[in-house]
Amino acid sequence: MLESVKYLLGSAGPSGFGSKTSAEHVTGYCPDLRSITAIITGATSGIGAETARVLAKRGARLILPARCLKTAEDTKARILSEFPNSDIIVMHLDLSSFNSVRKFVADFHSLNFPLNLLINNAGKFTHEHAISEDGIEMTFATNYLGHFLLTKLLLNKMVETAKSTGVQGRVVNVSSSIHSWFSGDLIGYLGSITRSRSDYDATRAYALSKLANVLHTKELAQRLDQMEANVTVNCVHPGIVRTRLTREREGLITDVVFFLASKLLKTIPQAAATTCYVATHPRLVNVSGKYFADCNETPASKLASNLAEAARIWSASELMISKDPNVLFDPFYGFQS
């Protein structure tokens, strides 16, 4: 109850920020970002677009990967209209395709840019059952597995950049509190919804993908620590964004319900704040493997904090990105509980 009241009031937590803090506010405390190169997935709308806009305002060079280049160019044009000196490059990327991820990384490497910051923000909620070109359920392929492969292929560049510049690299995985809705066998359920349309539940599939984002953060943090790499990885819940509610007015009770619900939602600048905080704030130097909401560290779900499960999903993910789609799930049976 107390936490809900603090959320509604926007009370500051230990970080000094809270649920009502904006992305511009939190980045007002960060160092000049003109030496920073950042890749932000899903930056063509919503939280990702605001994240890109604010980082551009602070001087970062931005790489904006997108499936639709025209939409990304429109985002770039909007940012340039506000900050004309911004350095923004648009590149093609379809996160649901392993081939597209690999081509994007190859194209990025050909630019010979450093890489300080990777924000894995893109996500989709697939209402209808669909399978990616690589034979994986589409929500999982886009929200998690594409980012897993992208991060894996860019990690050496981030480690090298941090070593040569002395500036700590940061990976930010955007998840959701809905990750706590999933329970059960992750790999077993993924196999089942990949093989069978009848087993598919859109909300549970989305929760699975967001749980995988948190587990990826936990395992990658351990691996970076073992490598003694000057790169951190953390995970964020941005909050639920305020949108226009379409409804029939039915009187006082309905008005009260919708008024209270609106107070639980965030504006887009508020929703982008936690991502920008984790990506830029000096307080988070050497902080890794943590989960943040409302710009403050907070516990993830019990399953999301299970290090054995994190190692298990990592091993399964390595198999998924390396096997022929026709036999993709055959090795998975050994991973099921």
Write the layout of secondary structure elements.
Elements: H1 2-9, H2 23-27, E1 37-40, H3 46-57, E2 61-66, H4 69-82, E3 88-92, H5 98-110, E4 117-120, H6 138-165, E5 169-174, H7 186-195, H8 202-227, E6 231-237, H9 252-264, H10 268-271, H11 273-280, E7 291-293, E8 296-297, H12 307-320
Parallel strand pairs: 1-2, 1-4, 2-3, 4-5, 5-6, 6-7
Antiparallel strand pairs: 7-8
Helix pairs in contact: 5-6, 6-8, 8-12
Radius of gyration: 20 Å
Give the helix proportion (percent range).
40-55%
Structural class: alpha/beta
How far apart, in Å, are the first and last alpha carbons?
Answer: 36 Å
Strand content is: 5-15%
Low-confidence stretches: 243-249, 331-337
Tell me about the biggest sheet?
8 strands, mixed
Helix run count: 12
> What's the average pLDDT?
89
Characterize the overall form.
globular
In words, what does this structure look like?
- It comes from Cinchona calisaya.
- GO terms for molecular function: oxidoreductase activity.
- The protein is built from 12 helices and 8 strands.
- It is of the alpha/beta class.
- An 8-stranded mixed beta sheet has the order 3-2-1-4-5-6-7-8, sandwiched between helices.
- A hairpin with a 2-residue loop joins strand 7 and strand 8.
- The chain starts with a helix and ends in a 17-residue tail after the last helix.
- The C terminus is likely disordered.
